[in-house]
Amino acid sequence: MKILITGASGNIGLNITEYLLKNHEVVATDINLEPLTKKFLNFNNIIIQKLDITDQESCHHLVNDNFDWVIHLGGIPHPDSSFEELLELNIRGTYNILDSLVGN
């Protein structure tokens, strides 16, 4: 299967990417690629790609590729964040990913 993971540089993203690479092709995306490139340098079934989920056009372009699964982990994980802090990344970013998938 071909799996897209957003927010793949986070703690959950790094762990689930490592697990899924055992049996699947993974496209791991994040705005910060450093943790991904360090951890998965020697894997051949991973594509590491920068993605800003707040950029709707970039989301649509990426999701034009066919994926069997999408695991959306991109966002601010802090429970004490204000609505204003969460609005762009967590809400609009999630909307952009979902909107991109509906179009396919």
Describe the structure.
- The chain is α/β, with parallel strands linked by helices and 104 residues long.
- The chain has a single domain (2-102), classed as NAD(P)-binding Rossmann-like Domain (Rossmann fold), CATH 3.40.50.
- The protein is 42% helix and 19% strand.
- Helix 3 (56-63) packs parallel to helix 4.
- The relative contact order is 0.21.
Strand composition percent:
15-25%
Report the helical percentage.
Answer: 40-55%
CATH fold type:
Rossmann fold
Number of helices: 4
Keywords: Carbohydrate metabolism, NADP
Pfam family, one: Epimerase
Organism: Vagococcus hydrophili
Protein name: NAD(P)-dependent oxidoreductase
Give a brief rundown of this model:
This protein has 104 residues and is an alpha/beta fold. Helix content is 42%, strand content 19%. It has a four-stranded parallel beta sheet, with helices on one face.
